[in-house]
Amino acid sequence: MTPLSRNRNYTVLWTSQALSEVGFNASLIAFPLVVLMVTGSAAASGLVLAVDAVAQLVAGLPGGALADRWDRRRVMLCCEAVQAVAVASLAVALWQGIATVPHMVVVAAVLGTCRALFEPAEDASLPRIVPESQLASAVSLNAARSSVGQMAGTALGGFLVAVGRWVPFAVDAVTHAMAFAGLLFLRMPPSPPAERRHFLREVLDGLRWVLGRPEMRVTAWCAVTLNLFFSAYYLVIIVLAQSRGVPSGEIGVMAAMLGAGGVLGALIAPRLSALLSPHQAIAGVFWALTALAPLAVFVSNGYLMGALFAGMALLAPTANTVITTYQLLRTPDELRGRLSGVMNVVVGTAAALGPALGGVLAQLLPGSGAVLLCAGGIAVITVLVTVHPVLRAYPRKDVMA
HEC states along 214-280? Predict the structure, then answer.
């Protein structure tokens, strides 16, 4: 069988998105800094980021339905083109010194909406360009790509802002344009024509598909709880580190090591997913967090906390590979976009609420108390995941077809 590295279509898709994600993350980290420089208002900075997140959540379910209704390659091309134009317009406005908050809000909304459309289209396309036996490897390599893009883009964005306010957005526009050019070479087998129904009915069909299957419903619940508690825990740890006098440079290393753990975990995910049962892979993430999360109470060094973060992130890609592979193989092609849209909204909502929960806990409790409360919540969920009958009966990849 042709290896993934020689699969022309997968390589085109992976490479184009590697470029796009570096540029996107560079502009994402630059956005709040530039808004603050232009307006001097922290509220305006928060507003722009909130608009981006809200747009992605609001467009998530419709985006999944559109990815099933429209040609997915064209959806991806349009999203890259629109994002390139949007960030280029902001780069020009900043260069000319005429950028306004409404303009930046519109750009943020466009970026969030395009991601809500692009991600389901890409996820649904994967089984059509990769053989089933290589799907798990493709999923894990996509996760590694996202982690590397986040780390590289974040580091690049901070540097580019120092060069000029408009520079990160100009670079992002170039990377989106390059991704668009790359996707022109993507060739996908045609999908069978899907039955057209009322658009709202199609959206609800996607929800029913996910919520009507116990294994998908339970894994969605796993994703919600894990993202909610870990997002809260992450913010609590940052606040605790600052209160203990950890230098900002070490806090940055902590965040980078979390990403490094995710990259390493994504690289070993195909092998681990083959060695472990699905239940072991899913429960292993929770047990790793349960074991490592309370140790933060005793750690006052940023580098050691970064090592803990890396350990916490190590097994997550394996569980994600198992779950995503199963879902894509068990879902009909005409519903795969909606599956991705539903899961993105579920995970995104939990990730958005988690920092708010963490902020409340950090405000109400001493640092160690907030850490232990988050760790206790993770431990309770871990026990439930371990004994849950649906997860214990989760089928192996070789019997999914």
Answer: HHHHHHHHHHHHHHHHHHHHHHHHHHHHHHCCCCHHHHHHHHHHHHHHHHHHHHHHHHHHHHCCHHH
